[in-house]
Amino acid sequence: MTDNSGTPVPPSNQPSSPPPAPQYQPYQGEHAPSGYNAQGGVAGEDPGKTLGIIGLVLAFVMAPAGLVVSIIGQVRSKNAGFKNGFATAGIIVSSVLIVLGITIAVLFALGIGAVVTQFAEVCAGVPSGETVEVEGVSVTCP
Predict the structure, then answer these.
(1) Which of 17, 86, 111, 136 could form a disulfide bond with 52, CB atoms 3.0-4.6 angstroms apart?
(2) What is the pLDDT of residues 11-54, one digit of tens each?
(3) If you write DSSP's letter for every residue of 71-128 in order, what string do you get?
(4) pTM for this one?
(5) C-beta neighbour count of 54 within 10 angstroms
């Protein structure tokens, strides 16, 4: 069977095959905005760099938070194959400041304890409400 132009027409009782699906070419990125990758991030950018910078700044303000943020930035950078100097510096600075803070707190507590002990010794034989002098400072005994 043929139509008016002479091309063969399949019989009407047989279903015709669907047209072939269009062939799409994989995206080559030639129209992508410059500097961006397929995931929407900047190509070649360290994913933990910003956290490393924030962690370093926080290390000076609130060392424990700086330590946590710096470690997170370091891990993200390492997983992406980058080295993160800011995160490393944040970890070091935070750790040093935490140890320094604990040391100062312990020394302060020991110093306060020593002063209280000294006042207790001086006031041991003195009636309550009496004023005594300890190293040039007047103290009223409890």
Answers:
(1) 86
(2) 666 566 777 777 766 555 554 455 544 444 555 788 999 999 99
(3) HHHHHHHHHHT---HHHHHHHHHHHHHHHHHHHHHHHHHHHHHHHHHHHHHHTTTSPT
(4) 0.57
(5) 19
Whether 50 contacts 86, CB under 8 Å: no
Q: Give the 3-state secondary structure of residue 51.
A: helix
Structure tokens at 135: 């190293």
Distance separating alpha carbons of residues 122 and 118, to the nearest angstrom: 6
Which amino acid would we find at residue 74?
Answer: Q
Amino acid at 6: G
**Encoding tokens for residue 101?**
């803070």
Contacts of 138 (CB under 8 A, 6+ apart): 131, 132
